[in-house]
């Protein structure tokens, strides 16, 4: 017997954005500890086009076909056996490990939270993989404190815009990098000093920061080592920094390692409360329909822009 069907984006092989195809697939069934969510909005994270291109195929090969995406906001449609944390009809947001670019997905209750009314589904879908990553990097890994100075690279991006506001909220002094067109935007998020990376090498104007948050990697990561004060810390979202270079500069350097479950319900609630109170704002770069997921990926692949790209799954 055929179960209920849904529309979802499927990837059947590594390749370009054209590999994202809208297909009719079986609707998943929630298992113990999980819920079925009718997805209203899904965040488009850079990780998703990298996975699709096969960047991680030797380390972490994909199992095809798969439904991309992890950041969701939607309505609980049904709950799995034994689930009491959520009920059908509740608006939730958070992370799924079972694909977000779909009309329905299942998610573990420990990586979901109730969506505040003040946030739209699209806004709530910017939190997982953006705000949650910024929080874990700054506060769990770098242990950023009030009064410290932090350099945030890529401050206009889906992670950086939250990192800039969280650091400012914590009472740290924020120095941020962004392109010319995003400089004023990043200043409006609370950055005290904005360095236009298209005109000024940041290492010429910044030194002795307590923390660097690297959201770019490569030579930006390497050049960042020299601006951290001795005993300071560099956290990269992209790669494992060289321990030899870190030792040479007398700093700690690490790749971001969140604590599990990630993001936890309590972390999602903390962030949602700050947003509902108006202390932290999100920004949506552009919204696409589910069937235009390939256009959303093509935009994400440019590596430039302001805020998070969203798939509005339920119009
Ligand atoms: N390891 C993890 O847990 C984890 C989690 C989340 C994200 N990530 C990774 O972290 C990176 C950032 O994620 P995201 O979601 O914030 O990406 P995003 O939304 O695409 O934003 C990237 C930002 O970087 C800026 N940028 C590009 N080149 C720059 C440079 N040379 N210097 C300073 N800023 C520059 C762009 O701004 P302009 O338009 O101003 O150039 C853009 O706003 C991605 O590579 C992603 O895969 C890792």
TrEMBL record:
Keywords: NADP. GO terms for molecular function: oxidoreductase activity. Coiled coil: none annotated. It comes from the Bacteria. SMART domains: PKS_ER. Pfam families: ADH_N, ADH_zinc_N_2. Residues 15-311 form the Enoyl reductase (ER) domain. This is NADPH:quinone reductase. It comes from Dictyobacter alpinus.
